Amino acid sequence: MNADRATGSDATASTTHSSRRTFLARAAVASALPLAAGLLGAGEAQAAAVLPDYAPIPEASKGPALNDRGYFVGRIDGDLHWVTDSSYQAMFLTTRQGVVLVDAPPTIGHNLLRAIEEVTRANGRPRKVTHLVYSHSHADHIGAASIFGRDVVRIGHTETARFLRRDADPNRPAPTLTFDDHHVLQVGGERLELAYHGPNHSPDNIFVYAPKQETLMVVDVLYPGWVPFKNLAVSQDIPGWLRAHGIAMRYPWRTLVGGHLGRLGARADGHLQQRYLADLQTSVRDTVSSLDPAPFFGKYGPAGNSWAVFAAYLNAVAEQAAAPVIADYLGILAAADVFTKDNAFGLLESLRIDAGLLGPFGIRP
């Protein structure tokens, strides 16, 4: 365990030989995922370190090395800790009364229990998870919630409870305690402030702030060291997701737990992602203004294939808009060349539908 406040910039490596990693290796995930070093064994990770189709990952984007069970656990500050498998992250507070855990990603799974045991064995605090906070309802972040038993207090937004009752997933039991706008969780002398600031990545995504440790956990919004996941994190409300960046930066945090990838965030990471998104938005707007749509209408219009017109034009805008942004952020943000075109497409669709930037599909004579 890392005893210092961690932001994580060490190169990732792993010597684990678990069945999950063996399966991933056999499935050739190493050739497709930049995160293979955190998911695969040492030899496989070394082979996957340089992907032939994509640019290398900047050293500053990498997280700490994983242990032989495939996870890293470290102290953020005081009794607040985090755990990662280089793909996902969770956060937990050890208190006099038990452990408060925020999220339970299934890829970390039972390693959450091992990480908590490691920390509480060292600090002498109870290891039982008494409270589990859901950042939002998505299974990739709380799909291991069931491993903590029936008697844990599960806390989430009112909408999270509604979604989970609808989905009836036994691995994601519905919250037993819900809130609409704000909730202060105080357990064993520790405090977390939960807040809902409206729909963003999902309709129920919340902000979790640890004031004493000056740490914010907001999931699927900021991606320290990396570009956002495909199509702007597959967010359901793009304008709300963009606003969430400003909301996050207004919190007085020093450390960010973003829920994904291998390292924690600093405030510079938030400013960098805001700049990336602003540059991408400018490029999309400029491309819509300058790209001649006539060839797409001329090629597919006579056949009456409207979807082909849309597909060709929107893809061309996304590709053209992404190109200068990729060039500017290669070597600065990891995977700039992987998802920037998809992010440009997602932003283009939001600008069309939400902001009225209709381009050739606007009001006609």
Quick gist of this model?
InterPro entries: Metallo-B-lactamas, NDM-1-like, RibonucZ/Hydroxyglut_hydro, TAT_signal. The chain is built from twelve helices and twelve strands.
Total helical segments: 12
End-to-end gap? 67 Å
Broad shape: elongated
CATH class of the largest domain: Alpha Beta
Number of domains as seen in the coordinates: 2
At the fold tier of CATH, the topology name of the largest domain is Metallo-beta-lactamase, Chain A
Give the strand order, joined by hyphens, for the main sheet.
1-2-3-4-5-6-7
**Radius of gyration from CA coordinates:** 22 Å
Helix % is: 25-40%
Mean pLDDT: 89
Give me the count of strands: 12
Strand count, sense and barrel status of the largest sheet are: 7 strands, mixed
Verbal overview:
This protein is α/β, with parallel strands linked by helices. The protein has 2 domains: 69-265, Metallo-beta-lactamase, Chain A (4-Layer Sandwich), CATH 3.60.15.10; 276-361, no CATH class. It is built from 12 helices and 12 strands. It has a 7-stranded mixed beta sheet with strand order 1-2-3-4-5-6-7. Mean pLDDT is 89; it is low at 1-48.
List keywords for this structure.
365 residues, alpha/beta, Metallo-beta-lactamase, Chain A, seven-stranded mixed sheet, five-stranded mixed sheet, 12 helices, elongated, disordered N terminus, Metallo-B-lactamas
List the helices and strands and how they pair.
Elements: H1 19-26, H2 36-39, H3 42-48, E1 72-77, E2 80-84, E3 89-94, E4 99-102, H4 111-123, E5 129-133, H5 139-142, E6 153-157, H6 158-167, E7 177-179, E8 182-187, E9 190-195, E10 207-210, E11 215-217, H7 230-234, H8 238-250, E12 255-257, H9 267-290, H10 294-300, H11 306-329, H12 336-353
Parallel strand pairs: 4-5, 5-6, 6-7, 11-12
Antiparallel strand pairs: 1-2, 2-3, 3-4, 8-9, 9-10, 10-11
Helix pairs in contact: 8-9, 9-11, 9-12, 10-11, 11-12
Domain Metallo-beta-lactamase: 87-260
Organism: Microbispora cellulosiformans
Keywords: Hydrolase, Signal
